[in-house]
Design brief:
Layout lengths: L1 H16 L23 E3 L3 H5 L7 E3 L7 E4 L8 E6 L6 E8 L6 E5 L5 E5 L20 E4 L4 E4 L11 E7 L4 E5 L24 E5 L6 E10 L1
Parallel strand pairs: 1-13, 2-7
Antiparallel strand pairs: 3-4, 4-5, 5-6, 6-7, 8-9, 8-13, 9-10, 10-11, 11-12, 12-13
């Protein structure tokens, strides 16, 4: 029971603050893998097939324990994406956007909000619980806005909507970002996955603001990562 509570607390920490280990990390060589009609670059990360080949990355090896474990991601519907918990002092805390090695080994490449990779080894996959992943709303885990602001998809239960807009995640300028939904999918008349259309340069628009008010601002998305 104590180990279960520790994992729950760590998950909450990661969802709210994006806890991670720090250190000098090389930039990721990620390149766009799709060319949407809009001016926003949509990048599907591919750590084991492309992103980790050109630059060395930090590697953390952990001993399997009740507190060192990986489970299905809570912020994306990618079937190879996991939330990994590594307990202190060696562990990096909570990492939710980790891509499991395609061989099925207990090795995960985790991408931080600074778009730098680290590799975690030795973490077993927890399979006892049913696999419940978010829908397409969680497809993009990081957004880089045109002013340089980074926004991170978050799994925080009970966040209030802002008018007709549903909470998606947190931005590093202390705002939240939202999506406008009609049922379970974005409005059919919108060319943005967030239901806001595009700007004059064809880039996706997304609403950001304070979660407790209805005063939201449309902002342009330069790059979206999934």
């Amino acid at each position: 029971m104590r180990s279960f509570l520790i994992v729950c607390c760590l998950v909450a920490c990661g969802a709210i603050s994006g806890c991670s280990a720090t250190g000098n990390r090389p930039p990721s060589p990620m390149q766009p893998t799709s060319a949407p009609a809009s001016g926003t670059r949509a990048i599907t990360v591919d750590p084991w097939g492309r992103d980790l080949r050109e630059s060395p990355v930090p590697t953390v090896s952990l001993s399997p324990s009740s507190g060192n474990v990986c489970m299905p991601s809570q912020i994306t519907d990618r079937p190879d994406a996991y939330l990994c918990v590594g307990e202190a002092p060696q562990g990096p805390g909570v990492q939710d956007f980790c891509i499991r090695h395609p061989s099925g080994d207990d090795e995960y490449a985790c991408l931080d909000r600074d778009l730098a990779w680290k590799v975690l080894r030795g973490l077993p996959q927890r399979t006892a619980d049913p696999v419940i992943r978010p829908g397409a709303v969680g497809d993009y885990v990081y957004l880089k806005l045109t002013d340089g602001t980074m926004c991170t998809r978050s799994h925080i239960v009970g966040m209030p909507p802002a008018g007709d807009y549903v909470f998606l995640g947190l931005c590093d300028d202390k705002t939240s970002y939202f999506t406008r939904f009609a049922g379970a999918a974005p409005p059919s008349d919108s060319s943005s996955p967030f239901g806001e259309g595009t700007d004059a340069q064809g880039r996706w628009l997304v609403k950001t603001g304070i979660a407790t008010t209805e005063q939201l601002t449309s902002r342009s998305v330069e790059t979206a990562y999934r």
